[in-house]
Amino acid sequence: MEVIIVEDLDPSSPKMGGVAGYSRKLLEYLLKTGIKTTLFGTGHSNGSFNSDNFTFMPVTHKKKFTGYEYLLKLTAKALFLRIPHSAIIHAQHPEYMLPFVLFHRKNPKIVAIRGPVLREVKLKRRKIVRLIYEMAESLILRHSDTVMTVDEATRQFYQQHYPWLEKIRLIPTGVDLSKFKLLDRNSLRQKHGFKPDDKVVAYVGRLEKEKSPDFLLGCFELLVESVPGAMLVFIGDGRDRERLEGLVSGSRLKRAIFMGAQAPDQVPEILNCADALALCSVYEGSPTVVKEALACGVPVVSTNVGDVSQIIRDETLGRIAIRSKEDFARALASVLIREDREKVRMECAKAAEGFSFDHVGARTVELYKELAGREACR
Fold this sequence. Notes:
Blueprint: E1 2-6, H1 18-32, E2 36-42, E3 54-60, H2 67-79, E4 88-91, H3 98-103, E5 109-113, H4 117-124, H5 127-142, E6 146-149, H6 152-161, E7 168-170, H7 185-191, E8 199-204, H8 213-226, E9 230-235, H9 241-247, E10 256-260, H10 266-273, E11 276-279, H11 288-295, E12 300-303, H12 308-311, E13 318-321, H13 325-336, H14 341-351, H15 357-377
Parallel strand pairs: 1-2, 1-4, 2-3, 4-5, 5-6, 6-7, 8-9, 8-11, 9-10, 11-12, 12-13
């Protein structure tokens, strides 16, 4: 069996979160299980993926590019590619499947959808862009063998919008529990410069509009009034970082710091230093960072997006807040002032045990085998 992963992932990059982080974990799992795997990614190097079963095909060598640039270069490359008809193509975004729908019709195809992408396009883009995207998405989904969603809300959205779409498989995201786990909190706080009495709120992700870092800064400004020792730590990078750093010069925001993108082994360490994780995205599917935080013993305060409300089942694991700065700040405060910190850590880590990426990987490989079996019968 051969699998082709299509994602704008640089194998040598330290990025861990989001779709890139999921794709990295999936690659590691497939290679661990001996499956021949090709990545249509970005960059110059295959990084730590040195297996004989791994082939790296860079679509672009540029470090900074848009999704549209990647898609155009991918289309040009796909036009002349020779791919065995039995190879399973697994695109991590719907639009990235378009070149293979156009030029490689015979290959089994899986499209991953994380959140109601079409709804966001309709809300944010001009009419002509919305029309083109919907036409392209409909074509892609019709010619794909399976649509893979990570949460129930996304599955329902697409089934309602495309009543003919029956081939949907729900497989949530997972966590590498060998990396994200309880560590020595006191020594790590000392290592990373946090004081014992700091109340650390961590944000892990891209610093871009749809993740609402501005909203979180507004919440933090209210939070410090009730929790003077509160500290906000941004872990990640993005287009809005420089602008956001300019906003924290006010006296109430001086305890908001930007740590930038971190090496893979550093993220679990910094999460273990935190007292809460904040997630205030406009939309998500099944956010991996929530499960990673729990695995590190950190409760989560989140807006009601994706499947988060199904994960944060009780107040020991965190809070679900409405999209109001006042309510979100109150939810953060209620988590930060808890005194049963060790009990919370243990309960959070226990809740994360069911999110092992090994479960996700096994279910994904089952799907591959199912499609490979269908292809063999054609």
